[in-house]
Amino acid sequence: MNLSFFIASRYFRSKKKRNFINVLSWIAMVGVAVGTTALIVVLSVFNGLEDLIRGLYGSFDADLKIEASLGKSFEATEGWLDSLSNVEGVAVLTEVVEDNALLKYGDDQIIVTMKGVSDNFLDDHRFSTGNLTGDKTLGTDLMPKAIVGRGVGYFLGIDPKNEFEKLRVYYPKAPRAGTLDPRQMYNSGMLGFGSFYSVEKKFDDNYVVVPLSFALDVMDYGDKRTSLEVMVSEGQDVEKVKDRLRAILGDAFTIKNKDEQHAGLIRAIRIEKLFVFITLTFILAVASFNIFFSLSMLAIEKKKDIAVMLAMGATEKLIRSIYIKQGAIIAFSGALIGLVLGYLLCWLQQSFGLVSLGVSSSVVNSYPVEIIWTDFVWTSLSVLMITFLASYRPATIATKVNTIEHL
What we know:
Elements: H1 2-58, E1 64-68, E2 74-75, H2 78-85, E3 90-105, E4 108-117, E5 131-134, E6 145-149, H3 150-156, E7 167-172, E8 186-198, H4 201-204, E9 207-211, H5 212-219, E10 224-225, E11 227-232, H6 238-249, E12 253-257, H7 258-261, H8 263-287, H9 289-301, H10 303-311, H11 316-352, H12 373-398
Parallel strand pairs: 4-9, 6-8
Antiparallel strand pairs: 1-11, 1-12, 2-10, 3-4, 3-7, 3-11, 5-8, 6-9, 7-8
């Protein structure tokens, strides 16, 4: 009777151990799945934010921007501009004169960036993203109008319905020698109000778009321009058009695409995305500690079985590979579940906007998400590396079993 009780207690004890190991394995798999899902979702949100910023800036910026390599401005003759307009792939070539000026409305005034543009600036889907309220024109030569950033408009308290109050622009100029008249130290001009635009805070709080003729008159630029903006024809490769323009312009000019125009901001988003990826990978590594514990418990419980296998001729390499594969099965099962869940959550957010920004005046109603396959690749590689590190030590311990002692 005592022997039967001893055998039964040993059986139930070993069964509890097996159940405990199975629970650890399931916890490890769930931890990997949750960590993988979080990685995919967060990386996709960063992709969506980057794409949203590109879209917002893209409605204000051109596909390519040409500036002088040295100096603030450059001469732009009519024949030279025609030669650039005739380059294959160039749909719209906009002349730009841009500088700081004082803008006054009523008793309020603010320093703004006045951007004088040629008439074709509003062609090819400008302000397609964001909000534009009012008359989408720059007026006429007799009555030029300004397209004002919403932040500038709020600061000045511009009333769109008040047709009698005009915007007045002041631009400093080099005074003549010997003059004491302050009116000789600046140029000024009057503008009507055209519309408000809202694209992004940087633009909304600083920029005022005016007709090129008005800007040239106030700033005394003559044939000089500060930049040229190029909209590329549909179906044309931006980089190829950029190379064609560089062949004509040479090293005297710089040509920037949309990303290069805001390289600092794009770089900051990508660096932040990288650090978030590293942080979540460490969290995933912590979650994978359960793989280490479950395999260590398995190595302790199966010492006798390992001793039998070694006695039958199994090599340490075979024993080690068994445990590493066991860890891989746990991790990859969790990773696969996590990848699928992450994809489904991102797809649901893209399709139905489950999580909103909670801001009624925002450009988008819900958090932007973009699924990129490289995120799935890097996440899978991270899981592979973590699995190997978590499984290698228990696998090594399993190969150190004393065959004589456990047989």
